[in-house]
Amino acid sequence: MNLPQTFIERTKCLIGYDWENFAEALRQDVPVSIRINNKKYPNGASIKQYAPIPWCKEGYYLDSRPQFTYDPLFHAGCYYVQEASSMFIEQAFTQYVDSDVCVLDLCAAPGGKSTLLASLISSDSLLVSNEIIRSRSNILAENMTKWGYANTMVSNNDPVQIGKLKNAFDVILVDAPCSGEGMFRKDAGAISEWSVDNVKLCQQRQRRIIADIWDSLKPGGFMMYSTCTYNEEENEQNVQWICNEFGAETLPVKIQAEWVITSSLINGVDAYRFFPHKTKGEGFFFALLRKNAEERYKSDAGRTSKNKGRKSNVLPDMYKDYIKDKSSFMFIEENNSWIALPQAIADKMINFRQSLHVISSGVSMGEFKGKDFIPSQSLAMSLELNRSAFTQYELDWGTAINYLRKEPLMLPDTPKGYILLTYENIPIGFVKNIGNRANNLYPQEWRIRSANIPDNEVKVL
After folding, report:
1. Residue 249, domain member (yes or no)
2. Which of 206, 237, 320, 451 holds its CA 20 to 30 A away from the CA of 378?
3. Is residue 228 annotated as a catalytic residue, yes or no?
4. Can you point out the beta strands (E) in 159-274?
5. The one catalytic residue among 13, 178, 228, 243
6. Is the domain of 118 the same as that of 204?
7. For 128-161, what is each residue's pLDDT tens digit?
């Protein structure tokens, strides 16, 4: 690995005598880790052959990198491939949040931290996952849909726009775009793009993002700030700036000594650093801040009239039955498609749908084409799916891969109509069986494009 000389000199000042160990760690393979979706795959005990990630309850290190693309359970949202260090946000969240909250993940794509937050919040909480770049927001929406939680929504907005929603969020995660020093062994492009000027540019961009979004955090609310870089400018110096500029305070997170997490490099700042020669994972920085709670506030989010944003059309009960507990959901129509929103947070979700550019929210049920109601992939992926409303058909591995490649299928001895396909008893999507063949309803943009199908079944869990 050919590191820039200036990076070496700067990082030696941070690490000191440990430089050689740090440099050697960068030459090693990147650790592979996953996090289980225990609501979809509750049989976590069966994967105990993997080493657990100590700061994340459902996180595990794998011994090698399998071909995740060819594991149907990966596409079904049973687990997420996530870098281990970044799972540390679980500690901060669970130690300080114990009530129903409205959470914003501001820079959320591709979705690792958002899927983790979705697993941590209560059922009556709401998670808004935002991504400013449209193409990345679609990837984020795909991953959040696969994760299956109904109390989430994905938006595609600039922080300035979200910042206009005064006091809307109890918790904001800012995983700030950074110079990416912690990704050097994973991304050669990060090395070639690195420079001191870029570090300083990133620092200023991060401060603008914080300033833009700050008013949307409630007084007394929490901001989780993280980067995947090592330098002080983008890390401790920015945390100090937040405290000085906005009167915030940093909060300690309880950690175990055996985790070998490095504390802040600046006195008076509670922060946590992951160095690859000490902690099994990539480079990561984290700080938890609390907004001054003394000022009174009036929220601009979550208030809407009882009928505002709702359609007068009514979804027939036979389609509402596609949801397990239909009485706890509101069903709204949008462009001939139907969406199910959890009743407890429906008004808040509708308000956000009116204020933000929303890509997805709640459970997309399906759409009418003529008199035919076509169930959506979102419904198949949802934890709220009433599986008994559909005929189910279990696929073997090879047929499941063909389905995920969006190839036509034959389902012998199966009735005509919409069929829910499963793999290892986990839903993976719908087909419409018309007798001589089954029309594949898997989303075109989600399909497996690679033709290099392995000879043997890929099994991670």
Report:
1. yes
2. 451
3. yes
4. 169-175, 217-227, 249-251, 262-263, 272-274
5. 228
6. yes
7. 999 999 999 999 999 999 999 999 999 999 999 9
